[in-house]
């Protein structure tokens, strides 16, 4: 899944208070269709695919954007998540879920040559774009591996943390342990990091809990999930017209791809219910000015870090 945010700032910032934006939005009658939990949502099944067929729109998206013009490397992530650099020579393993065109994995590969990066996407076209962008930017890479997977409907492959690790760890049910399993010679024994960068918002809301639990399952005890996604009342949300609403805070674009906008409480509940411990969770608020139109543009992203508990 491609993450379609505009440039998310050079650094984690709070250029305005989210409550200030909330007050503006909730007192603007023209934006009232974004606010109501109980209403008739629009969904034209002839124009847009139903939520359970969301892989094909992303496949089509990457086919249309094969020129690479949509690519923008997310260098700011190494400042947002310094753990990706400070893990040093520990031979850490990371899974980027929903790698899109590689704009997240590329700065990670540049910033830490000792980290092994695994990347997946529901679109095989996205994986081709990722490989092309990495090949153009880095001459030789032997610590990057990609595979096709829709984590909202399928389990991650056994070799990330095999079924024997999952079901026979001797700890919490569903926990996979930190060792290479002799049952499967390809098993890497779990991950140190999982990144969900503008990916969860593209998953149908009802499938989010299952998707997060799958991320929990492949992390080592003590491993971190690093999260960044669209926040409630972000400029992108307010641009959607009423007919694009398919659920509360959930929208469908004209190309059939989905977008959900998170409040902090929703994110907190999703991850804690999956078994994670909250480490960091806050809104990142960036104000930009369109000088040509003389308008202020308010961007809101949710920044989070969540840890899988150590085995007790």
UniProtKB/TrEMBL annotation:
Its EC number is 2.1.1.-. Pfam families: Methyltransf_23 (PF13489). It comes from the Eukaryota. Coiled coil: none annotated. The keyword Repeat does not apply. Residues 41-51 have a biased composition (Basic and acidic residues). Residues 29-64 are annotated as: Disordered. Keywords: Methyltransferase, Transferase. S-adenosyl-L-methionine-dependent methyltransferase. Belongs to the methyltransferase superfamily. METL family. This is tRNA N(3)-methylcytidine methyltransferase. The lineage of its organism: Eukaryota, Viridiplantae, Streptophyta, Embryophyta, Tracheophyta. The gene is LOC104787663.
């Amino acid at each position: 899944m491609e993450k379609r945010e505009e440039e998310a700032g050079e650094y984690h910032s709070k250029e305005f208070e989210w409550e200030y934006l909330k007050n503006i939005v909730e007192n603007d009658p023209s934006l009232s269709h974004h606010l109501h939990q109980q209403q008739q949502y629009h969904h034209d099944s002839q124009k847009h695919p139903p939520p359970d067929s969301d892989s094909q729109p992303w496949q089509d998206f990457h086919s249309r954007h094969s020129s690479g013009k949509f690519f923008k490397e997310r260098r700011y992530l190494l400042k947002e998540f310094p753990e990706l650099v400070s893990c040093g020579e520990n031979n850490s393993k990371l899974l980027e879920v929903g790698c899109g065109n590689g704009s997240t994995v590329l700065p990670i590969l540049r910033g830490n040559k000792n980290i092994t990066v695994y990347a997946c996407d529901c679109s095989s076209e996205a994986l081709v774009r990722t490989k092309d962008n990495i090949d153009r930017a880095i001459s030789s890479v032997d610590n990057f591996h990609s595979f096709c997977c829709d984590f909202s409907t399928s389990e991650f492959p056994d070799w990330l943390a095999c079924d024997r690790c999952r079901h026979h760890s001797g700890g919490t049910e569903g926990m996979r342990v930190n060792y290479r399993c002799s049952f499967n010679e390809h098993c890497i024994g779990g991950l140190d990091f999982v990144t969900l960068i503008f990916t969860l918002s593209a998953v149908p809301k009802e499938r989010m809990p299952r998707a997060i639990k799958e991320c929990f399952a492949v992390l080592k005890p003590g491993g971190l999930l690093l999260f960044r996604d669209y926040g409630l009342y972000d400029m992108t949300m307010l641009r959607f017209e009423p007919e694009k609403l398919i659920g509360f805070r959930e929208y469908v674009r004209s190309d059939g791809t989905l977008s959900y906008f998170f409040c902090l409480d929703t994110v907190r509940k999703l991850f804690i219910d999956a078994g994670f411990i909250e480490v960091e969770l806050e809104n990142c608020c960036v104000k930009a000015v369109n000088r040509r139109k003389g308008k202020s543009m308010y961007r809101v992203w949710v920044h989070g870090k969540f840890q899988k508990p150590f085995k007790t």
